[in-house]
Amino acid sequence: MTLLSLNGTVPGNWTMIGDDTTPDEGANVAVTLARLKRDMDETLVRAGAIGVIIDTETPYTDLAPYMNKLSFVGIDFPAFTDGRGFSLAVRLRKDLSFKGEIRATGHAIPDQALFLLRAGFDSAEVSDERTAAFEAALSRFASFYQADYQGRSSIAHQRHKEEPQRKAS
Amino acid sequence: MYAYDTYDHALVRSRVAEFRDQVARRVKGDLTEEEFRPLRLMNGLYLQLHAYMLRVAVPYGTMSADQMRRLAHIARKYDKGYGHFTTRQNIQYNWPKLSETPDILDELADVEMHAIQTSGNCIRNVTTDQFAGATADEVADPRPYAELLRQWSTFHPEFSFLPRKFKFAITGAATDRAAVKWHDIGLIVRKNEVGAIGFEVLVGGGMGRTPVIGKTIREFLPEADFLSYQEAILRVYNEQGRRDNKYKARIKILVEAMGIDEFRRQVEEEWQRIKHIPIDVPAEEIARINAFFAPPPLPVLEDTVSAVDALARKNFVFAAWLKNNTNPHKVPGHVNVTISLKPHGGIPGDATDSQMDLVASLADTYSQSEIRVSHEQNLILPHVAKKDLPTLWSDLDKAGLGTANVGLLTDMIACPGLDYCALANARSIPIAQAITKRFDDMKRLQDIGPLKVKMSGCINSCGHHHAGHIGILGVDRKGEESYQLLLGGSGAEDATKAAILGPGFDEHGIVDALEKVVAVYLGVRKEGEEFLATYRRVGQQVFKEAVYDAA
Question: Which 3 state secondary structure label does DSSP give B63?
């Protein structure tokens, strides 16, 4: 398994720990959402930075109470066709102003690399034999019709040399 | 027409290169068929019963003569010399080789065409009124907004892996020729009291096994908020649409389950949060796109042309063609001409390479090099001067394209059915051929009057049977093809669901049953009353008795 950076930032080193494992003092750990809810203020205070791995069924609002404590969110794709993962990343960036690392785990395929990046993912867990295809997919397109969650503006805005400003209401 | 700039060209060329690589990886075995499937589908490539099928987008049904010539060339070089125009205003090729599909896409890219998102669980080709920008009865040309939707929905980072496919239709006219109420999102261009453009937005319409007519979610959406509102709808759907059962995954099921009021509340709440972030394009971009759709500079001509009237008096077929196949234009002395792809006994929607070439050259001569495809599977030459009609008709007629049946019983929609389609339960084409042969009599057809017959070879409803004045649905009954008859549907502004009349028929019985329905109508109609109006007035029972009691 290769940990691939989508946007050039260095992926963090997070150890996934079981729901009943006490983290080492100061260790960077990732836990399930259930564990996070249960132990955020208990055993998890020992840890260094804390991450959570969520499935695509998770409502993004479940993460809201932990925003100032979380450094990492892994979104686990049960199937690459489950597009809820993309909306979850968008929600984290847009509605929860999450600044930490978002990683795609589970079943994502190389052809989704740019979709992941543009929806706000920083990194992806990729099988070794697919790393090259994933990396190639990242440079496939130069511009897109939509603004993305990495700060790049849409073709429509680029056409008019306009900074993507907020509309006056 | 819209013309690509360097951004559009780069995007489409990059997509061709990507698809070429995907095909190569699939051939090498680096991609499994399961993984390749959604990727090829998002590029319009299906695996059908006998071969691959490539669906090429004709964005909102508008194309140039040069683009049509390229479609003819592709039919000749890569297929068996024909193509099939669809109810999504696209064209399908039935026999391409997998290894050659990247080359076809390169040929399409040369003329600013593609097959992006013509299938798959993503936002599909946006459809519209085939007379958009040319019809006398519209508020504004809807195509600039369709182009905005095309760009916004292409490779959307968030909405490319939806629970199920997603279809937009937009109209700018009071008469709905785009079936907007039958789409996941339907849009009607409106002007408010100060003359500003906006949109009525409908959501949750769709056919398939659960036919639902779309509901108005917003009466007036300002032009400046056009895309952000769609984004809010799509986000609510992407997050909450069902993914456990593909038959319940369309947005119509979510809207029904939630109720339109709750769905609207959630959409409005999300929209308020996103309407100010740069989703909508700058006003300059709307102006830039609008400029491509400026009406052609047509001279105002005499509306009455004596040579046309004279020919109509002495030639019954021309008179019928003039009446049925032309539609009023904005500019006096002009019409929009519909070229019927429904020759009696032919395959609905099919055109040969030489017919496509002919239509392209006629477009160069008579219609400002512009061509449209209608969701009723015909081709349109917009902006034709009335004085040119006799020569145009004669040229069309010689090529087998002069059938004068537009809007009549034999102008029927039919899907490819079991002759091609892997999803079909029954054949459609032979039934359509039998029906159009049975009614191969222009005087009889004229007497019957406007009547929309729509046929699907399975419950997926590509042939719009739910919206047919008369609908036919092919099903599999214990291994036999069986055809159900439905009456009273409408795809227009008065959208209604057709109702099943009773037990199904075999392939011969369905034609007889349809003929009985027509006979009942002719017997009970009032002076000048069209089929649908009669059906609505008298109800189902009288038809049911005639069809089943005699049997």
Answer: strand
Whether the CA torsion B11, B16, B17, B18 is positive or negative: it is: positive
Summarize pLDDT for B441-483 with one digit per residue, the tens. Answer: 999 999 999 999 999 999 999 999 999 999 999 999 999 999 9
Could you tell me the residue ranges of all domains in chain A?
2-142
What string of DSSP letters covers B132-188?
A: TTTBTTBSS-SHHHHHHHHHHHTT-SSSSS-SS-B-EEEE-BSS-SS-GGGSSEEEE
Which domains are present in chain B? 6-110 (3.90.480.20), 135-291 (3.30.413.10), 306-398 (3.90.480.20), 413-549 (3.30.413.10)
| CATH class, range A2-142 | alpha beta
Nearest to B10 among A84, A95, A143 (CB): A143
For residues A124 and A118, what is the distance between their CA atoms, to the nearest angstrom? 13
- What does the alpha-carbon distance between residue B412 and residue B435 come to, in Å, rounded to a whole number? 9
Distance CA A30, CA B309 (A): 81
Question: What is the model's pTM?
Answer: 0.96
Judged by a CB distance cut-off of 8 A, whether residue A84 touches chain B is yes
ipTM of the complex: 0.95
Other residues' Cβ atoms within 10 Å of the Cβ of residue A45: 11
Residue contact B239–A140, C-beta within 8 A: no
User: Would an 8 Å CB–CB cutoff place A62 in contact with chain B?
Assistant: no
